[in-house]
Specification:
Length: about 270
């Protein structure tokens, strides 16, 4: 059997037919992907809708937390790729009620302004991180990137605040250390009017699977982050599902037992 001619030796009509066939196959592949449902963490298992999207150069975990009945949602840490976030919101018919920043590092706040413009939802952040947010040009220079557009912060968060959307509720926990104004969002099993299968913690960059947030950047403090971890987050139930700002999910109990920064050295 004779080997096929390379494209540069084929006639224009033959090349056109090959390219058309390739485009049809690519289009069919894209359509098949679009028909596949996007995995939704927790829609049936936990009693709420959760979509986690790693965005931007540093793959910050942006979380969309929604009420499956009212379709109201909270967006946490839209660091970049706002077009992807909006597409998912539209696909699942969700209305954004608030945009929450767990802390003001550039990889977590890069999309705040654009998402606010498109949704009109208020932007929320802890007061102690406002100076860090206003110094976005310094952070951008550190990474060698252009600074993102800033927006007003419409609501200042404080420890103990309750955020409500749809039938869901989350409590703000001030967890300084990674930054002065770092916060975590805690949804207990009885989260508003919905009973969850397990408590949920959106920990920002305070706690990771097997590690903790770095403290060598602007306003970081190892002493404060350890106080936040041991005095606040480790007080939560072992079965609490932890959604970190980067990387995979974990559990409070797992981190209590195996995280090298938290294991007791007694």
């Amino acid at each position: 059997m004779r080997a096929p001619l390379p494209l540069y030796q084929c006639s224009k009509a033959a090349v056109r037919r090959v390219l058309q066939a390739m485009m049809r196959r690519a289009a069919n592949a894209i359509l098949r992907l679009m028909d596949q449902p996007i995995p939704l963490v927790g829609v049936e298992k936990h009693g709420f809708l959760h979509i986690s999207i790693p965005v931007g150069m540093l793959q910050c975990n942006c979380s969309i937390i929604g009420d499956p009945v009212t379709r109201e949602a909270l967006v946490v840490d839209p660091g970049d790729e706002v077009g992807r976030i909006l597409e998912l919101l539209g696909r699942h018919k969700l209305t954004v009620k608030a945009i929450v920043s767990t802390h003001a590092h550039i990889d977590h706040v890069g999309g705040l302004s654009k998402l606010h413009k498109y949704t009109g939802a208020p932007v929320m952040m802890h007061r102690e991180d406002l100076p860090l947010y206003q110094a976005m040009d310094v952070q951008a220079a550190f990474l060698g990137v252009m600074p993102p557009e800033l927006t007003d912060v419409h609501q200042v968060l404080a420890d103990g605040d309750a955020l409500q959307w749809g039938s869901l509720e989350a409590r703000v926990i001030h967890t300084p250390g990674h930054t002065p104004g770092s916060v975590s969002l805690y949804m207990p099993a009885e989260a508003g009017k919905i009973t969850l299968a397990a408590p949920q913690l959106f920990a920002g960059d305070t706690l990771f699977a097997g590690s903790i947030g770095r403290t060598d950047l602007w306003g970081g403090s190892m002493e404060e982050i350890m106080e936040s971890l041991r005095g606040k987050l480790m007080a939560l139930p072992d079965e609490t599902v932890v959604h970190p700002g980067h990387g995979p999910t974990t559990f409070i109990g797992e981190e209590r037992q195996s995280n090298p920064f938290l294991v007791s050295r007694d």
